[in-house]
Amino acid sequence: MSAPGGAGGPLAGVRVADLSRVLAGPYATMLLADLGAEVVKVEDPGRGDDTRAWGPPWAGGEAAYFLAVNRGKRSLAVDLKDPEGLAAVRELCARSDIVVQNFRPGVVARLGLDYAAVRERNPAVVYCSVTGFGPDHRPPDRPGFDLVVQAESGLMAVTGEPAGAAVKVGVAITDVLTGLNAAVAVLGALVRARATGRGEHVTASLIGSALSGLVNVAQSALVTGTEAGRYGNAHASIVPYQAFPTADADIVIAAGNDALYQRLCAALERPDLAADPRYADNPGRVAHRAELVAALTGTLRERGAAEWLDRLAAAGVPAGRVRGVLEALRAADAAGDDATLALPHPTAGLLDLVRAGFRVPAEPDPDAGERPGDGPRPTTLPPPLLGQHSAAVLTELGLSEGRIAALVERGAVRQHEVR
User: One GO MF term, please (predicted)?
Assistant: First the structure.
């Protein structure tokens, strides 16, 4: 099988069978594709990945949700209830370096696609199971959805205004964290598999990712033995570290240490706040949070956001404007952060997508002093149409043209013809 999804990246030549759907698993496999791996996405021929129906909005008939997490992949639309279709997917797994799946417990075993079955033919396979509540959770078949996990993990309890209700994060953050954790676990296992010739079964769960993602908030709860509170746009342990209103827009200020606080006071022309012994160190500022925030707010309301941000930047105080999502993406690109990339999509035309948070050169040259992000990038496929690559993938797996045509004829395989 060839590797058209990301030739030239550090994972060039690595093959991934993506049996996952929705967000966490597909996000993990998209990151592997961004690193150069060839990813074959296995989908139901009738409906495809669930997120193909999660619109509006749409672009060229494709849901924006699906487009967000499926670039760099080829789509094999095959019915796993069809014996010949299932046999083809088993062959795909046998020929892959990595298998990622997020079926409900018991389903992969019934299909003969579980780790034991795949390993029997492919001892070096790195097999990743993405779950909602972990492999040992009781009851074992509990479905995992981001909203439920945000509630169950405590993440929702610490999000929102102090006097308000618990609020979910505005993006499915537990899925995203799980995708990142899955990709990290897979890469670590792949290194060992390449060294030993033996694969292994790694797991990543939404609940584990959410709990570990609470980092200092969780640790503070463990240290104090008390439940963590909600601080809105402020910080439990650092003051001032929050959003503030100005004369015309909201900004955030992150004075994370005593030196930055002194610089902030100078930029605001408030020497009285700099000299006040109540605010001399961070514990004092936390203890007197209400008084200090009120004083800073009063001063910041006197001028507009642009003027304050210029002053704060000149003083070396971390600060920023509270932006909308589209504004933020455009601002990042304008500032040279290279946040988006455009790919030619067969139905949506030139499609803007958000790049991964990392930058890895396709072929680093240590003698050239390259930095991450320098150099040529892997060739990236746009998010696939449902079944766009079915015939090509099945041909690579050894099926004849006649057998493929028969599968398509009886509806076991979908082949989308791109015109």
Answer: CoA-transferase activity
